[in-house]
Design brief:
The complex is a heterodimer of chains A (about 120) and B (about 325).
Chain A lengths: L1 H24 L3 H5 L7 E7 L2 E3 L2 E5 L3 E6 L8 E2 L15 E5 L4 E6 L7 E7 L1
Parallel strand pairs in A: 1-4, 3-8
Antiparallel strand pairs in A: 1-2, 4-6, 5-7, 7-8
Chain B lengths: L17 H8 L6 E6 L2 E6 H7 L8 E6 L14 H13 L7 E4 L9 H11 L7 E3 L12 H7 L11 E5 L2 E5 L16 H12 L7 E5 L17 H6 L7 E5 L6 E5 L2 E5 L23 H4 L4 E8 L4 E8 L2
Parallel strand pairs in B: 3-4, 4-5, 7-8, 8-9, 9-11
Antiparallel strand pairs in B: 1-2, 3-12, 6-7, 10-11, 12-13
Helix pairs in contact in B: 3-4
The chains are: A alpha/beta (about 120), B alpha/beta (about 325).
Chain lengths: ~120, ~325
């Protein structure tokens, strides 16, 4: 029941957002992007012991997702411990974070430390 | 290390010397017997031994190295790693002289899961040899920094720090090192200051004629840094061991037999019992190597080591599971 109500609420919220989106669209592209910033997915694929793309530029508040396509487990760990680390990702497992304040974030795989990557967060 | 491309000692007048032979054998992955006699390393292929008679008969100490069992792995490279591990154990049980103990050089499991460790322990019960010494692989310490591994596998030893230790058997000094924890971004395997200081103190009181066996998961020599196959501070560790007449370094991690001799140091990596990995640089990544089913067992195996007191002889023999 609760799930149903929640889903319903979500649907209403979505409708409002869509309507709002249309309204905002009239004000220009930049404003139109705001409501769905957190929903946009920036994907980093882990394949052949490498993060692809090695450097990803995102906007603050956007979601970043890593997917492991190797047969070997990998992790995602911030070098400066600036964001939560993943557990070991098995094949096809994902890990997501929300981009924080603007800046450059380097990360690596703590299992295979030769694997490194960078996230650039813009305003 | 200097690279020798010429014959230094043509003992058997066969146009090939020890170093030349080692170079030839380096990638072959077939059975080679190593004997260190009075600090001089002699190598023979298993075929030569068969011709000459047999392996050295009565030995004072023989032990066996198994590595990289990766229990829990179920991908194409080997969908049944428990079966190949069981075959390896059957081989040990079939040995005419059972080894005194086993050394497992890490990656017991694929994902450090308790149920994977359980399966491994269950399978190991069928082994006649009950004494097993472990060092962890990176796959055994994935999410908890090795806590579960240490709880289970260090009961027989007086481990220090993150799990390193030493022990003596028949006059041979054994050292188990941990080089898979606290790895730094962009780096290789690492021992760390605390462990290195312990190692220096551990070997300080030993006579230079004490045979030393060092075992760790990631190679303690730089095999192929592009794939992380090496240990950043291993030079310092080896520096403490250079004064000894016979040092044998046994590693796993790279799922293939590789050997190197540097003065009195003999480096050796073992095959996995789970799946092979490509030779350095021959694939886009060091991921599991898929080979035809009939070829798989030829690329899996274990390593037997024998030491005969008085002769200060140490012999390392690889055999596959085919």
């Amino acid at each position: 029941m609760i799930t149903f109500i929640r889903k319903n609420k979500k649907a209403v919220l979505l409708t409002i957002l869509v309507v709002l989106n249309f309204c905002l669209a009239a004000w220009g592209d930049e404003s139109a992007k705001l409501p769905d910033a957190a929903d946009r997915t920036n994907t980093i694929e882990i394949r052949d012991f490498a993060f692809n793309p090695p450097t990803l530029t995102v906007k603050s508040g956007e979601k970043i997702t890593w997917i492991n396509r190797d047969e070997e487990p990998h992790t995602v760990v911030s070098v400066e411990k600036q964001f939560k680390k993943s557990s070991a990702l098995d094949t096809d497992q994902e890990f997501s974070i929300e981009a924080g304040s603007p800046g450059t974030y380097t990360y690596f795989c703590s299992v295979h430390p030769k694997m490194t990557g960078t996230i650039v967060v813009e305003k | 290390m200097k690279d020798h491309n010429h014959i230094l000692h043509n003992v058997d007048s066969d146009g090939i010397d020890r170093r030349g032979f080692l170079k030839c054998m380096a990638w072959a992955g077939t059975g080679v017997l190593w004997t260190v006699s009075g600090g001089v390393l002699v190598s023979k292929t298993l075929a030569q031994i068969a011709k000459a008679g047999s392996l050295p008969a009565a030995t004072d100490l023989s032990f066996l190295q198994i590595s990289d069992s990766h229990i829990g792995f179920s991908k194409d490279a080997n969908k049944n790693v428990t079966e190949t591990f069981r075959i390896a154990l059957d081989r040990i049980n079939a040995m005419p002289t059972p080894p005194s103990f086993l050394i497992h050089t890490g990656d017991i499991t694929q994902l450090s899961k308790p149920e994977e460790f359980d399966t491994f322990d269950q399978l190991l019960k069928s082994c006649r040899t009950k004494d097993v010494f472990y060092v962890p692989g990176e796959h055994d310490v994935l999410n908890d920094g090795g806590k579960l591994y240490r709880e289970r596998y260090l009961k027989r030893v007086e481990a220090k720090g993150s799990g390193w230790y030493s022990f003596n058997k028949n006059g041979v000094h054994f050292i188990g090192l941990v080089n898979v924890l606290n790895l730094e971004a962009g780096g290789l395997g690492q021992l760390g200051d605390e462990q290195l200081e312990w190692l220096e103190a551990d070997v300080k009181g030993l006579g230079a004629d004490t045979p030393i066996v060092v075992f760790a998961h990631i190679p303690l020599w730089t095999v192929y840094p592009q794939w992380g196959w090496g240990t950043s501070d291993s030079e310092r560790a080896l520096g403490y061991l250079k004064r000894f007449g016979s040092v044998t370094v046994l590693n796993g991690h790279i799922h293939q037999v590789l050997q190197k001799v540097e003065g009195n140091l003999t480096f050796h990596t073992a095959m996995s019992t789970a799946f092979p990995q490509p030779a350095p640089g021959t694939a886009p990544s060091p991921g599991p190597l898929k080979v035809p089913a009939e070829k798989l067992r030829r690329m899996l195996g274990l390593t037997s080591v024998q030491y005969k007191q008085g002769n200060s002889a140490l012999a390392v023999v690889d055999s596959n599971l085919s």
